[in-house]
Amino acid sequence: MLRICRILAPLSMAIPAGCGSGAAVDTGVPTPEAQVQTPWETVTVTGGVVNLRAGPGTEYEILGRAVTGDSLRVTGGLEDWYRVYIPERSLFAWIYAPLTTGTELP
Fold this sequence. Notes:
Mean pLDDT is about 75; it is low at about 1-25 and about 30-35. Helices cover about 0% and strands about 40% of the residues. It has no helices and nine strands. It is mostly beta strands. The protein has strands spanning about 5, 35, 40-45, 50-55, 60-65, 70-80, 80-85, 90-95, 100. The strands form three sheets. The protein has a five-stranded antiparallel sheet, with no helix packed on it. A two-stranded antiparallel sheet has the order 1-2.
C-alpha cells in the first residue's frame, strides 16, 4: 500500500512587481501555507519504547525507537509488521503491529 503524497495548495506566490503594482507572479515555488496531505494510514505507538527495525523481524538491525503516543505513517506491511515512514528523520523502518493502534493490515 505505497501511495504518493500530493500538494493541495497552488504553487504560486504573491510577489509585488516593481512600481507598487502588487501583481502576483507565479514563481513555481510553494507558499509557506501550502499543505501536503498524505493518503497513508497512520498508527499510534501503544508500547512503552518500541524498536524501529530495518526489516520485518527481531533479527533485523534497530534503526531507532518510538515511544507511546508517537504517530507513524504506514506505507505497507508484512504479517504482523508495518513498514512506516518517519518524515522528521527521512526514515523508512518496520514496527511490530501489536505494539500500535489505528489501522489493520489487509
